[in-house]
C-alpha cells in the first residue's frame, strides 16, 4: 500500500456538459491535463470545436458532442453518443446550466421548467443512463455543479436557487444509490467566477469588488481555481468521498 494519493486519470473517459465555456470548459481542460479523454457536450458546435482545439493544443484528447441538454427525452441518446469517441465515460461532470435572472413576479412556466430541467432533471437522467457503463468498469465519478445558492438566496434567481438547492440533495441521493457500486457522487459549489452566467456581476466593477471583499481570501474566483477540486473528485484519490458538497468559494460561505 502506498500513501501517495492517486490523481491520475489516464485511461478514463469523461463527459462534461456545459463544456463549451466557463467552468465546464475549465474542468474539461483540467481533466484532460490529468490524462482523461474528454467529451465536451453543449449546444453550440462552434464553441465546442474551439474548446476541443484548446484541449488538443495542450496535448490532451477531446471530442465534441452538440446536443440540447434541456431536452429531457433526448438524454438517453446523448448518453449513447457520449460513448462514440472514446468508449463508456466513467466520469460525468454536470455543468450545463442557465440563470435567467428574472424577478420572482416575472418567472413564467417556461423559464421555470427550463431551469429545473437543466439543473435537476438532466443531471439525474443523464447520469443514470451512464451508470451501467460505470458499473461495468468498476469505477464511476459523478460531479455535479452546486452553487452558493444551494444554501442561500440571491436576488432574481428563484428557479436557479431552487435547482441549486435541489442538486445538493440530489447529489446525496445519487451517492446513496450508487456508491456501493464504486460510483461516487459529489458536487462542486463555486463562488463567483468570471463566466457567461456571471457576466452581469463582473460587468459591474463595484459589485464584483464588493463580492470579493465578502470572501475570506479577498478575491473572486479564477477559472484555474476549479481545476484541482475537479480532478480530486474525478480521481481515485477521492475513493472514500461521496455525497459531499465542496465549496470552492474563497471562503465566501465561511464569513
TrEMBL record:
InterPro entries: NAD(P)-bd_dom_sf, Sc_DH/Rdtase_CS, SDR_fam
Alphabetized Pfam families for the sequence: adh_short_C2 (PF13561)
PROSITE patterns given in the database record: ADH_SHORT (PS00061)
Similarity comment text for this entry: Belongs to the short-chain dehydrogenases/reductases (SDR) family.
The protein's name: Gluconate 5-dehydrogenase
Naturally occurring in which organism (per UniProt): Halomonas litopenaei
Amino acid at each position: 500500500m502506498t500513501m501517495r494519493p492517486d490523481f491520475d486519470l489516464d485511461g478514463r473517459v469523461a463527459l462534461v456538459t456545459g463544456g463549451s465555456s466557463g467552468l465546464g470548459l475549465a474542468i474539461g481542460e483540467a481533466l484532460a491535463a490529468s490524462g482523461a479523454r474528454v467529451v465536451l457536450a453543449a449546444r453550440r458546435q462552434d464553441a465546442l470545436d474551439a474548446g476541443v482545439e484548446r484541449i488538443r493544443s495542450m496535448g490532451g484528447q477531446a471530442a465534441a458532442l452538440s446536443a440540447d441538454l434541456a431536452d429531457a427525452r433526448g438524454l438517453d441518446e446523448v448518453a449513447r453518443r457520449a460513448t462514440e469517441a472514446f468508449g463508456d465515460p466513467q466520469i460525468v461532470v454536470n455543468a450545463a446550466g442557465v440563470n435567467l435572472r428574472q424577478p420572482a413576479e416575472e418567472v413564467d412556466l417556461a423559464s421555470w421548467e427550463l431551469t429545473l430541467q437543466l439543473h435537476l432533471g438532466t443531471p439525474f437522467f443523464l447520469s443514470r443512463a451512464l451508470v451501467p457503463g460505470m458499473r461495468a468498469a468498476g469505477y464511476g465519478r459523478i460531479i455535479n455543479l452546486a452553487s452558493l445558492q444551494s444554501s442561500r438566496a440571491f436576488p432574481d434567481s428563484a428557479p436557479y436557487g431552487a435547482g441549486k438547492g435541489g442538486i445538493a440533495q440530489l447529489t446525496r441521493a445519487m451517492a446513496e444509490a450508487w456508491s456501493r457500486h464504486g460510483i461516487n457522487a459529489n458536487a462542486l459549489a463555486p463562488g463567483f467566477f468570471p463566466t457567461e452566467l456571471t457576466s452581469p456581476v463582473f460587468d459591474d466593477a463595484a459589485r464584483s469588488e464588493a463580492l470579493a471583499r465578502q470572501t475570506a481570501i479577498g478575491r473572486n474566483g479564477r477559472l484555474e481555481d476549479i481545476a484541482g477540486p475537479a480532478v480530486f473528485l474525478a480521481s481515485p484519490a477521492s475513493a472514500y468521498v461521496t455525497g459531499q458538497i465542496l465549496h470552492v468559494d474563497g471562503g465566501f460561505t465561511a464569513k
